[in-house]
Amino acid sequence: xxxxxxxxxxxxxxxxxAYAAEVPQWWDxxxxxxxxxxxxxxGKNGAFESVGYHVxxxxxxxxxxxxxxxxxxxxxxxxxxxxxxxxxxxxxxxxSAVHAGKRMAATFTxxxxxxxxxxxxxxxHPQYPTPAVQQAVTAxxxxxxxLNWEAIxxxxxxxxxxxxxxxxxxxxxxxxxxxxIVLPSGFLAGxxxxxxxxxxxxxxxx
Length: 206
Known about the structure:
Layout: E1 6-7, E2 11-17, H1 29-34, E3 37-42, E4 48-55, H2 62-69, E5 81-87, E6 90-99, E7 102-108, E8 114-121, H3 131-140, E9 145-154, E10 159-168, E11 176-182, E12 188-198
Parallel strand pairs: 2-3
Antiparallel strand pairs: 1-3, 2-12, 3-4, 4-5, 5-6, 6-7, 7-8, 8-9, 9-10, 10-11, 11-12
């Protein structure tokens, strides 16, 4: 997904989401205190939709590790990073790694059921976006550069959408970073703008 980051007690990035539905539960203070970074996703109504806590790999249940190691997209690949994520009021675990220079990630339930996969793809990859998907992005963001594509797969391994990161006005004071959600049909379903922000997490006084 998107690397949109909050460093605990430091600068990170706040994401504004174009299309949203409010999530009833997203905050876990214990996870926040253990996290090295935190990702937030905010809806157009200002409500938090999801949050991801970057935590140590030891926080991931064994069932999640086992499923990750046996995924057909990258069998046997060891995970390099972990997150605890709240989406739609549900708690998930995300593992990620870099394989052949490309980022791979997957989100699971505690029991190890695959919720979603993210695969960074480039031209020539069997899941690289079709011309219709690429044209939809260039039509809406003609000044976008540094395009980076991810194929998003559901639990059954089918591509359900593409995420593309791009930069507008690169190298200027008006530079903006976006993450777009595009359906396989070419429909632009969402747009995320990364904004620098600060987060402070309360800690017990010593």
